[in-house]
Automatic annotation (TrEMBL), chain A:
Organism: Alishewanella longhuensis
Protein name, per record: Thiol:disulfide interchange protein DsbE
Keyword Ribosomal protein included in the entry's annotation: no
Domain of life: Bacteria
Entry's localization field: Cell envelope
Listed Pfam families: Redoxin
From TrEMBL, chain B:
Its biological purpose: Possible subunit of a heme lyase.
Originating gene: ccmH
Location of the CcmH/CycL/Ccl2/NrfF N-terminal domain: 13-147
Keyword Metal-binding attributed: yes
Family under the similarity heading: Belongs to the CcmH/CycL/Ccl2/NrfF family.
Residues in the signal sequence: 1-17
The protein's name: Cytochrome c-type biogenesis protein
From TrEMBL, chain C:
UniProt name for this protein: C-type cytochrome biogenesis protein CcmF
Lineage: Bacteria, Pseudomonadati, Pseudomonadota, Gammaproteobacteria, Alteromonadales
Boundaries of every Cytochrome c assembly protein domain copy: 89-296
Membrane topology, from the record: Multi-pass membrane protein
Species: Alishewanella longhuensis
Keyword set includes Transmembrane: yes
Pfam families: CcmF_C, Cytochrom_C_asm
Length: 192, 173, 653
């Protein structure tokens, strides 16, 4: 009994190092996807290019889609536009953009200017590729907060009934798509 | 005349009020009561910015932290209590967002383990002392006689070695 | 050329460390005296070569040699020269080299100041230090080489030092911290040497004590400086964030504190042997764990270095060898060692045991709080965060019995203590502390039953008890004046360190309870009133620093009754190369309170967001830490540790 007591520190340490080892290969900043399984939160937001058109969860139902939170201020988002266009054109993935507006910095005299933003977005999409069916403008970032978005880019897979099925933080590249998102998308889109 | 005096009076007070407003700075977040101010301060200190390395939302300037601060303020003004605001945030960002973990069958060990260790270490000392009391110094030595004998011999040997080397060294120097 | 020489020097140091780890250790088993004698020069050689390597890297930084990757990534030509030199340890690679250099320095110091030790012991200690050195030098050389070149395409300008690190605190904070972390390697080596030799007498404890005290002294200073630096540099007015990296330094500190107390028991009474050895192994093991946590990327922290799983794997293997190996040795050797000393339940031994129990429990709390989120997630249970609310709650409950015990402990005799003679002095102390606590509260704030009152009571209890205990000790020498010279330095050290703890509790409790803050929008000429002080924004203008721009604010502070207090100058710097915004808070410090102003972003309409704090007694936290370090320093000066034990040591046992 007394002898085994002296082995306790060693055993505890070895147990701890197992967790340390597995911890080395996972991202400590990863959060739980709490939205998965829940319906899209209620919202009513204008289209980025055509503000008369107002989008709500009801108007999006009917077909599964990939919701992409992005902004032209975000280099990673611009970088993934090409691959996502490929997904749209080659695999017919329905991609809807959720445009995440950064707060304006009054120090540089910035004010929100929709017309200018539309032009900027248009030229950016022409340069990098346009994967979007359309873009929803989230000026106050209210929908983003309801979805638990912490920045851009982030991605959600939403099924035909408007239920969130996946939440991916970070960019989409071929590896991420094939390993993580494609199976979920195909399951809910009912496409091969 | 009376009216003029009154008007003058009004102008004077108005202008005083105006300067007072201009001089007294505005708070970035207004509260209706000290209670609300306290809840807000407490909440922004214990909510974690989901985008940053490891900061609470009070200390972070990330966009999402600013948004969460504003939301917290809005909810506090609407009369949400501390727990309701926390639930609101956890619903959206998960348990990750609160610096106090939820209590469940696994996290309970966070509190249990330290208490258990505290008790175990004190009990250990009590038992140890009783052991020493019970078996006289002789009997405890009998128990591990062979072991101590071997150790003593070894110690003696190494001591001798030390001695010889020490002498040798002092001669040489 | 110089960087290559640096690398060469580091390679030589590796060779020295390998020989140091093999030859004297082998010699200690084969009783080869020549092999044992070679340890000291080898340790010195290893230190000289690591120092050369460190100088080579410093040279590269000083001369803006951007062909060296590490320099290009962490310095720039516009950086002031002193920050160029501190940038040497601003990155993972450079700080690792400094770690190695300090470890080699401790090894050389042990070689230099261990004349009193038996040669066998000396050889074993240095051999173990050599083993540890191998691991870190190899890590520096093969996994994070600071001398790597960018050739053939090198940048003309470096990407600058992280602005957070461009501060005077950076000049001495990491070196002090590392001196502490690595210093525990010496206690560790002493413990391993004792385990190998199988001798655990009080001489072992007496040799290990000054080294442990020295390491603890540096660690305490390092942590305090880090806290003070974060307070003034981060602009949030916080002094401790329970960040994983802070916790990584706090855990070895807690165990080191326990070790100092446990060593006292082992030295004076020859008991607690296996426990003391375990603590000595634990303090350094936690230092290593801390290095792993900071450098592997398993945890997220504001302070951690860039993550790299490969480095993590290397360090983890190293941890397994060093910690796992030492614990295995401990388990196989220690169970046959029995302590013979007898003592009653009310005795100094048990009091110090209580101290150890609370410190160890605190360590467990910090360890759990730091690593539990990782475990929780790896078990597939999802992500959680553990921070201030949890730690504050746990430390609140741990601190109350700990402080009560601390006030009583020094009065209790070894072996056994009758309760009756202590009743009177304890009652006296209790009354004094009550008066002192209520008096302080009435003088500075309004009297209320809150955390501050609890902190004041506990602080006064510990402080008054410490002072009265010394007074009582001095009286026993006949007259006070005679006693002052006769009382051991280590006793004064203990008393001062305990008073430091008291001061710190008061500081923490008062700051937590009475700090006030306001986030305000201010235009020039605006005023804000907080805790009886009126802050008036006088002016805001553009800044033009060597490698930064930004804005500065001038603020006048008056009492509400109009008395002028001070003028504050707060800055918000924008470092041009790294595109990072830093707040340089303006602080007016007094013993009773700090006034703290930080300038935030510009708001619409020629206004600025400004954060104003009034923090009562916040200085006491660092003052307490300084007193603790001072206590350790005075204890180190005790003549007992400098006695030549050559003959004594050999004659003993």
């Amino acid at each position: 009994m007394r002898k085994t007591l002296f082995y306790v520190p060693l055993v505890l340490f070895l147990g701890l190092s197992l967790f340390l080892l597995s911890g080395l290969f996972s991202d400590p900043r990863e959060r739980d996807a709490v939205m998965v399984g829940k319906p899209l939160p209620a919202f009513s937001l204008p289209d980025l290019m055509n503000p008369e058109q107002v989008w709500s969860p009801e108007t999006l139902k009917g077909e599964a889609f990939l919701l992409n939170v992005w902004g032209i201020w975000c280099p990673t988002c611009n970088a993934e536009l090409g691959y996502m266009s490929q997904l749209r054109n080659e695999q017919g993935v329905r991609i809807i953009g959720l445009y995440y507006v950064l707060p304006e910095d009054p120090m540089f005299g910035e004010v929100f200017d929709l017309a200018k933003l539309q032009v900027d977005v248009q030229s950016r999409l022409q340069a990098f590729g346009d994967p979007y069916q359309f873009n929803i403008l989230d000026r106050q970032r209210r929908l983003s907060m309801d979805l638990g978005v912490s920045g851009a880019p982030e991605h959600f897979i939403v099924d035909a009934k408007g239920i969130v099925r996946a939440h991916h933080i970070g960019d989409i590249n071929p590896q991420v798509w094939r390993a993580k998102l494609a199976p979920i998308y195909q399951q809910w889109a009912g496409k091969p | 005349m009376k009216y003029v005096a009154r008007l003058l009076c009004l102008i004077v007070t108005l202008s005083f009020a105006a300067t007072a407003v201009a001089e007294q700075s505005q708070e970035l977040f207004n509260f209706e009561s000290e209670q609300q101010r306290r809840i807000y301060a407490q909440l922004t200190a214990e909510l974690r910015c989901p985008q940053c390395q490891n900061q609470n939302i009070a200390d972070s300037n990330a966009v999402v932290a600013v948004d969460m601060r504003e939301k917290t303020h809005e909810l506090v003004l609407q009369g949400y209590n501390r727990q309701q605001v926390l639930d609101y945030m956890i619903d959206r960002y998960g348990n990750f967002v609160h610096y106090q973990p939820p209590v469940n069958s696994v996290t309970i060990w966070l509190w249990l383990l330290p208490v258990l260790m505290l008790v175990a270490l004190f009990l250990f000392q009590l038992r140890r002392r009783r052991n020493v009391d019970e078996d006289d110094s002789t009997s405890s030595e009998v128990l591990s006689e062979t072991a101590t004998k071997a150790a003593q011999q070894k110690a003696l040997l190494s001591n001798e070695l030390d001695h010889i080397i020490e002498r040798y060294r002092s001669k040489k120097l | 050329m110089i960087p290559e020489l640096g690398q060469l020097a580091l390679t030589f140091a590796l060779a020295f460390s390998i020989i140091l780890a093999i030859v004297p250790l082998m010699g200690s088993f084969t009783a080869n005296e020549r092999a044992l004698l070679v340890a000291k020069p080898l340790a010195m050689g290893m230190f000289v070569f690591t120092l050369l390597a460190f100088c080579a890297l410093s040279w590269a930084f000083y001369h803006d040699d951007f062909t060296v990757l590490n320099v290009a990534n962490n310095s720039s030509s516009v950086l002031p020269w002193y920050f160029k030199l501190t940038a040497v340890w601003g990155s993972h690679e450079g700080s690792m080299l400094m770690w190695v250099m300090i470890l080699a320095a401790w090894t050389a110091l042990v070689g230099q100041y261990s004349k009193g030790l038996p040669l066998l012991m000396q050889g074993r200690i240095l051999g173990v230090m050599g083993l540890i050195n191998i691991g870190f030098i190899a890590f520096s050389l093969f996994m994070s080489n600071p001398f790597e070149r960018t050739l053939p395409f090198f940048p003309v300008e470096g990407s600058d030092l992280n602005p957070l690190l461009q501060d005077y605190g950076m000049i001495i904070h990491p070196p002090l911290l590392y001196m502490g972390y690595v210093g525990f390697a010496v206690s560790f080596a002493f413990a391993i040497a004792a385990l190998i030799g199988g001798k655990f007498d009080s001489t072992w404890a007496r040799w290990a004590r000054p080294w442990t005290l020295a390491a603890w002294l540096f660690l305490t200073l390092g942590i305090m400086l880090g806290s003070w630096w974060a307070y003034k540099e981060l602009g949030w007015g916080g002094w401790w964030f329970w960040d994983p990296v802070e916790n990584a330094s706090f855990m070895p500190w807690l165990v080191g504190t326990a070790l100092i107390h446990s060593l006292a028991v082992t030295e004076k009474r020859g008991t607690f042997k296996s426990w003391t050895v375990l603590l000595a192994l634990g303090a350094f093991s936690l230092s290593l764990l801390g290095a792993f946590l900071v450098r592997s990327g398993v945890l997220v922290s504001v302070h951690s270095f860039a993550a790299d799983p490969e480095r993590g794997v290397f360090l983890l293997i190293f941890l397994l060898i060093v910690i796992g190996g030492s614990l295995l040795l401990y388990a196989s050797r220690m169970h046959s060692v029995r302590s013979q000393a007898r003592y009653e339940i009310f005795s100094r031994e048990v009091m110090l045991w209580g101290n150890n129990v609370f410190l160890l429990t605190a360590t467990l709390v910090v360890l759990l709080g730091t690593l539990f989120p990782l475990v929780h997630k790896e078990l597939g249970l999802g992500s959680i965060s553990i921070g201030e609310p949890f730690f504050n709650q746990m430390f609140y409950y741990l601190n109350i019995p700990f402080a009560l015990l601390l006030g009583l402990g020094p009065w209790v005799r070894w072996k056994q203590q009758k309760a009756a003679p202590l009743l009177k002095p304890m009652a006296l102390i209790a009354v004094f502390s009550l008066i002192l606590a209520l008096g302080t509260m009435a003088a500075t704030q309004t009297v209320a039953a809150n955390l501050a009152l609890l902190g004041l009571l506990l602080g006064a209890w510990v402080g008054v008890s410490a002072i009265m205990e010394v007074y009582q000790r001095l009286q026993q020498f006949g007259s006070i004046t005679q006693g002052v010279a006769k009382l051991q330095a280590s006793h004064y050290g203990m008393t001062i360190a305990h008073i430091g703890f008291a001061v710190m509790i008061v500081g923490i409790a008062m700051t937590l309870t009475y700090s006030e803050e306001r986030d305000v929008r201010m235009e020039i000429g605006d005023r804000v009133v907080l805790a009886g002080y009126e802050f008036e924004l006088q002016d805001v203008y553009k800044l033009n620093g060597p490698n930064y721009g930004g804005e500065a604010a001038e603020i006048d502070v008056r009492r509400v009754d109009g008395r002028y207090v001070t003028h504050l100058h707060a800055e918000k710097r924008e470092y041009t190369i790294q595109r990072m915004v830093m707040t340089e808070a303006a602080i007016h410090a007094r013993l009773s309170r700090d006034l703290y102003v930080s300038l935030g972003e510009a708001l619409p309409g020629n206004a600025w967001a400004i954060r104003v704090y009034v923090k009562p007694f916040v200085r006491w936290i660092w003052l307490g830490g300084l007193l603790m370090s001072l206590g350790a320093l005075i204890a180190l000066l005790d003549k007992r540790y400098r006695r030549k034990t050559t003959t004594g040591g050999a004659a003993y046992a």
